[in-house]
Amino acid sequence: MAKEAITLGSDEHVRTSPEHVRVVSIWECKQAADCLAQAFAEDEAIRYPIDTKDMAQYSEGYKRRLHEETMEYVTAAHIYNGLVTTVGPDFASVAIWLPPGKDIDGWLTLFRSGLWRMYYRLSKEGRKRFFAEFLPLLHDTKRDVLGRRDADSYYLADTEHRATYLESTGDRNTGMYAARAFAFKKYVYLNYGAAPIALAIMVREPQATQETRDELKDTVTAENASATTTSVAALTAGNGDAMLDVISPAA
């Protein structure tokens, strides 16, 4: 079965039934990471620290294993200080996300997850790309785009009606997110390679659920009922149903 990496936002709590979204434990890290590694096996942004000139002498098999190792560390970091979910028992789809106030930058998460090993596993150029360019670029761009909302936003998915932030690695994904109320903000670029690699920065503003729309409607109705003159309130809101986005390597 082909693997797909997904992000999922829903107005319901995460459920643990095998037929629904469930939280991944650290004991399942390898299986979840394998799904992500397959989904992004040819994504040039994800492979950016690996496909370097000073890695040219290594086989594609060696670089593939390094890619898989990287995804395992990243998945573990999100399990420890974020959230990783999957659908069903066979890890055919996996989501990693950072709730408000969470990050994977702390020393404890760095060591528990194994991310610290990337400093020694990557080549000299790979270390520069990953630690000096890639991570700081993503961190600083999110802060610049969201401003004061940075610490009060979801990274990739939202279940609490807060701003949702993501980086899209290709036009196909960007169009898919735009159809789900994500607004394009700007491009940022990874520039240490042979050609710049573009990442589209997108933000989805909080989407009202049916419950919040009903509450607003009840409030307006109550206020109008006590007024001498009443008016009709136009209630407009985005779709609050479950959102399922497939992240696939861009062509």
Question: How would you describe this protein?
Answer:
The protein is α+β, with helices and mostly antiparallel strands and 251 residues long. It is built from seven helices and nine strands; from the N terminus they run ββααββαααββαββαβ. A five-stranded mixed sheet has the order 2-3-4-1-9. It has a four-stranded mixed sheet with strand order 5-6-8-7, with helices on both faces. A hairpin with a 5-residue loop joins strand 3 (83-87) and strand 4. The radius of gyration is 20 Å and the shape is globular. The model is unreliable at 1-16 and 212-251 (pLDDT under 50).
Number of helices: 7
Sheet with the most strands: spatial strand order = 2-3-4-1-9
Whole-number radius of gyration?
20 Å
Class from secondary-structure proportions:
alpha+beta
Strand content: 15-25%
Oligomer: single chain
Count the E strands.
9
Query: Gap between N and C termini, in Å?
Result: 20 Å
pLDDT averaged over residues: 78
SSE pattern, N- to C-terminal? EEHHEEHHHEEHEEHE
Unreliable sequence segments: 1-16, 212-251
